[in-house]
Amino acid sequence: MKGQRLWPSSLPIFLFTVLTSLTFECSAEFDSLLQLPLSRLNTTRPRSKGIFYLGDFGAKGDGISNDTQALMEAWKVACSFPTRARIVFPASNTFLVHPLELHGPCRSRVTLRIHGIINAPKDPNAWAGLNPRKWLYFCGVNHLTLEGGGEINGMGYEWWMSSCKINSTNPCRHAPTAITFHKCKNVKIHHLLVIDSQQMHVAFTNCLRVVASNLKVIAPAFSPNTDGIHISASRGVMVKNSIISTGDDCVSIVGNSSRILIKDIACGPGHGISIGSLGKQNTSAQVRNVRVDGAVLSNTKNGARIKTWQWLCH
Ligand SMILES: *[C@@H]1O[C@H](CO)[C@@H](O)[C@H](O)[C@H]1NC(C)=O
Ligand SMILES: *[C@@H]1O[C@H](CO)[C@@H](O)[C@H](O)[C@H]1NC(C)=O
Ligand SMILES: *[C@@H]1O[C@H](CO)[C@@H](O)[C@H](O)[C@H]1NC(C)=O
Ligand SMILES: *[C@@H]1O[C@H](CO)[C@@H](O)[C@H](O)[C@H]1NC(C)=O
Ligand SMILES: *[C@@H]1O[C@H](CO)[C@@H](O)[C@H](O)[C@H]1NC(C)=O
């Protein structure tokens, strides 16, 4: 499809089914309520209450030093702060962040204000011994916001080149999702550039009430499986005013998701907007109440589609 407005008003897709209750746990212990003594903060500069600069936790922000520990410590403090907390990534800095998990529950709302750049390690070996599907992983957080006009860069090139979809002599393996929100509620992610993810860019799994807006999600058309926004087992997700141009689906929606609104997005190049694949290995899966309203798809492999697995016969 080239540059044509697909749906003048809207395309509601309703699949009615029974939604069963969801019980998933975060994969590690909640540690955020461990109090980090505030005396460890650098107080030589005056700081507003509840605003935490990554540099005050030892981050160098030079794009070369490992800033992972600084982010983990900033998270511990912000997440146990009694009122709204903001972690600031200044515009002039590039932070190198290795795979990490940031867990809730937090005492109050937490915002990551990303004005600068967050880079992943280029080398897939940085994941040795770690879960290859995760880079920035948020779990069990209520009222979490990512914003700030900055950039999150998955540095995915080496992952793509080692994919079996690029070169069939490579073994097939999983690659990280750049940003995952798992079991989070009231998530906002807006005004960010998310580029070159190792695999999927932004995923919401088992989340409730999400708004993703004013995002630019960009990766080359040849990059394998680099879905823009992936929604799984989540309810009440709005994706709006965003530009998504990757090597796979702009938005993909899989099992047990409902009340999904995709509004005013530009999609392409990419594979389009997909529900599924649903029902792998004879399982049943339900997706219901999906609305796409105001999407411009250009240079996409498909428009909007539903993908299902076939029944297996004996
Ligand atoms: C605290 O911040 C100031 C100003 O940025 C810096 O010069 C100083 O080295 C920092 N101190 C510590 C202990 O990090
Ligand atoms: C970077 O820091 C994290 C957290 O301290 C650590 O787990 C990781 O091994 C470090 N990576 C390298 C390459 O130094
Ligand atoms: C695919 O990978 C193999 C083994 O690493 C390499 O020899 C070959 O040149 C690669 N092919 C392409 C087209 O890059
Ligand atoms: C959907 O829910 C069913 C029943 O709880 C579960 O077996 C299945 O794994 C879920 N699917 C997804 C994609 O979460
Ligand atoms: C898959 O489900 C269908 C319909 O219930 C059934 O006929 C078929 O035998 C099942 N196949 C397997 C391999 O379980």
Please tell me about this protein's structure.
The protein has a 15-stranded mixed sheet that branches. It has helices spanning 68-79, 157-161, and strands spanning 4-5, 11-13, 51-53, 62-66, 85-89, 94-96, 100-103, 110-114, 117-119, 134-139, 142-147, 151-153, 177-182, 185-195, 202-205, 208-218, 229-232, 235-245, 251-254, 257-267, 273-278, 287-297, 304-308. Helices cover 5% and strands 42% of the residues. The longest helix is centred in the first third of the chain and has 12 residues, at 68-79. Mean pLDDT is 88; it is low at 1-24 and 27-39. By secondary structure, it is mainly beta. It binds 2-acetamido-2-deoxy-beta-D-glucopyranose (5 copies). One 2-acetamido-2-deoxy-beta-D-glucopyranose binds next to loops. Belongs to the glycosyl hydrolase 28 family. The active site is at residue 271. Keywords: Cell wall, Cell wall biogenesis/degradation, Glycosidase, Hydrolase, Secreted, Signal. It is found in: Secreted, Cell wall.
Low confidence ranges: 1-24, 27-39
Largest sheet: number of strands, sense, barrel closure: 15 strands, mixed
Q: Strand fraction band?
A: 35-45%
Count up the helices.
2
Q: Averaging pLDDT over every residue, what do you get?
A: 88
Structural class: mainly beta
The coarse overall form would be globular
What is the chain-wise order of helices and strands? EEEEHEEEEEEEEHEEEEEEEEEEE
| Termini gap | 39 Å
Task: Indicate the percent of residues in helices.
Answer: under 10%
Bound chemical compounds: 2-acetamido-2-deoxy-beta-D-glucopyranose
Number of strands: 23
C-alpha-based Rg, rounded: 20 Å
Subcellular location: Secreted, Cell wall
Keywords: Cell wall, Cell wall biogenesis/degradation, Glycosidase, Hydrolase, Secreted, Signal
Pfam family, one: Glyco_hydro_28
Family: Belongs to the glycosyl hydrolase 28 family.
